[in-house]
Amino acid sequence: MFELIRRDGLGRIGKLDTPHGPLETPALLPVVNPRLVTVPPRELYDAFGFRALITNSYIIRNDPKLNARAREEGLHAMLDFPGVIMTDSGTFQSHMYGEVEVKNEDIVNFQRDIGTDIGTVLDIFTEPDWSKEKTARAVDVTMDRTAEAASLKGNMLLAGVVQGSVFEDLREDCARRLALLDVDVHPIGGVVPLMEQYRFADLVDVIVASKKGLDPSRPVHLFGAGHPMVFALAALLGCDMFDSASYAKFARDDRFMFPEGTASLQDMKDIHCHCPACQSHSFKEICDMRPADRAALIARHNLWASLEEVQRVKRAILEGDLWELVERRCRAHPSLLSALRRLAKHQDFLERFEPLSRDNSMLYTGPETLSRPAFLRYERRFFERYQYPGTEVMVAFEDGGKPYGRHYQQQIAEVLNEFDAHFFVASPIGPVPIELDEMYPVAQSLFPEPPDRETKERIREQMEHLSHEHPYSLGVAWDGQATMDILAMMCQKEPSFNMDLARVRAVCDYQFGKGAADLLLDGKIEIKKSETTGKIRNVLVDGEHILSMRANDGFFTLRPPGAARLKVGFASPKMRVEVKDDAVPFNREGKNVFCAFVNGCDPDIRPMDEVMVVDKNDDLVALGRAMMTRDEMLSFRTGIAVKVREGIKK
């Protein structure tokens, strides 16, 4: 069973239960060749802290001595490794050397019998240069073998491999078929040639296509991904496990692995590395070592570098800045930069998993930042949900200090003193109504000055879109006194714009859906503000507390009277998570909603959205924030689906 602990979009920290204890992900599994051990498995566990490794059951089975030892002692005792052991089946050998002399049934039974924690199907390695017809036939064979393996696995976890070459539809179809089988882990296979050829953009397509079809409650293993330069990108796309023998292979060729790439010793002039393997040796000492000793040192360096990068990825997920890490890492090589740019193709899919807000600011690192799903979400929600205030004119400011309302406070006051105006800011995020200036990601994003060409072009396109949508009789760009003179000639109405009320209405519609403001604010409105900051804190309607505004992201938390209004106005399942009868009493007491007790859910819910927890009769049970999407809630058997803030007692 796999549990989601923390997330940042598709990137996730999880816990996989195995026969040898829980495995925290993201996890790197060093490859151990049972015939050629570079770093002893016990050292991997004790010194490095690796809690899982992968070895090859095909090699063990075909070696009489290893076969006998594995059957007699068990795999863990033979390798002297107390952690989780995953075994490959011989598929990679078929890729390297042609057909392997073993049947799927035999290799699955062998893995189970020697005590493998995670065994692998003997799938067909689909090469990138295969035709679609040949690939489709191979996928069918893999599916038949996976179904057979599922019936044989016993207590062993089974890895069902997603194949399909570079054909996205075949990858997605294979993944959907695998999701219906009794499989525990999903490696994405057949991708080593893509990584060896630095076809990282194609790798992005393959991973995304696979993720679209897979059961989200199962961990995804990117087969053969053992270089730290790809970990962040793979994690961003939802890969949980990695493996590779590269640490040892590269070491035998005197190649050091770093998050920014690979460095050959013969090209290096010095080394400034503080890993445990390198820190006590000078560059000259490393160069003068015997080849075998040097290879052993470099292999350990490569493991430390890889392990440190996995930990860095985990930290990014915890802190909510995985996108920034990926963008920095992908600028280390042009092929990785191509992969980063390929993410724009999948912006719509990635948006489904994008949280409503993050704890950290969104930092612009380059033009590729503009393709993040947060930009797509803002654009969609603004143009689909925003209701323009009924003012006579619009004044547009250039992007400036944040929050925009404070930065342009003097100019806004000057205009509103005389004219019936509303205000927009031409932001890289999109056209920002002044009343949305405190909302994520508008207020929590940082862009360099001056803006680059791509940012200027995006601003131009977005403002042009606005020009075709807005209802104002006049729109002008702020130009100081010249603008005031134009407004004096053109405007006739008295000032009517109410910033506080506009803010409440705009955030309601953006956050909860078009029409939410009308439902929530039907009555006598009272807005309470902080005496210290002057920011909105609570919204009351007809004396009932319906909303509270969060200071960190500018969004609302929903209060029970507000939820009651939305529930009446929005038909099920909008904004709802329906729970089973057994969970209702606990959720009414304020206990979290767990996945196993979710009956249904609004498919448009995104992580960190405000949701209404209801029973089968659509009666309100609790209020909270979604931790998952609909598909995730219905797929996971454990973990928190909704973090409940307040139970609703009858």
What does this structure look like?
By secondary structure, this protein is of the alpha/beta class. 41% of the residues lie in helices and 21% in strands. It has a 6-stranded parallel β-sheet with strand order 6-5-4-11-10-9. It has a 6-stranded mixed β-sheet with strand order 25-29-28-27-24-26. Helix 11 packs parallel to helix 14. The model has no long low-confidence stretch (mean pLDDT 96).
Keywords:
650 residues; alpha/beta; TIM Barrel; Archaeosine Trna-guanine Transglycosylase, Chain: A, domain 4; 6-stranded parallel β-sheet; 6-stranded mixed β-sheet; 27 helices
Summarize the main sheet.
Answer: 6 strands, parallel
Number of helices: 27
Indicate the low-confidence ranges by residue numbers: none
Could you say what the CATH architecture of the largest domain is? Alpha-Beta Barrel
**Integer count of domains:** 3
What distance lies between the first and last C-alpha atoms, to the nearest angstrom? 35 Å
| The CATH C-level class name of the largest domain | Alpha Beta
User: In what order do the strands lie side by side in the largest sheet?
Assistant: 6-5-4-11-10-9
Gyration radius, rounded: 28 Å
Number of E-state strands? 29
The percentage helix is 40-55%
Q: Which homologous superfamily in CATH is the superfamily of the largest domain? A: Queuine tRNA-ribosyltransferase-like
Strand percent estimate: 15-25%
What topology does this entry show?
Blueprint: E1 2-8, E2 11-18, E3 21-25, E4 27-32, H1 41-48, E5 52-56, H2 57-62, H3 64-73, H4 75-79, E6 84-88, H5 91-97, H6 104-113, E7 118-120, H7 132-152, E8 157-159, H8 168-179, E9 186-188, H9 192-196, H10 200-213, E10 220-222, H11 228-236, E11 241-244, H12 246-252, E12 255-258, E13 261-264, H13 283-288, H14 291-319, H15 322-330, H16 334-342, H17 347-351, E14 362-363, H18 373-385, E15 393-398, H19 404-407, H20 409-416, E16 421-427, E17 430-433, E18 445-446, H21 453-469, E19 474-477, H22 481-490, H23 499-512, H24 516-520, E20 525-529, E21 536-541, E22 544-549, E23 556-558, H25 560-569, E24 576-579, H26 584-588, E25 593-594, E26 598-601, E27 610-614, E28 620-626, H27 630-635, E29 640-647
Parallel strand pairs: 4-5, 4-11, 5-6, 7-8, 9-10, 10-11, 14-18, 15-16, 15-19, 24-27
Antiparallel strand pairs: 1-2, 2-3, 12-13, 16-17, 20-21, 21-22, 22-23, 24-26, 25-29, 27-28, 28-29
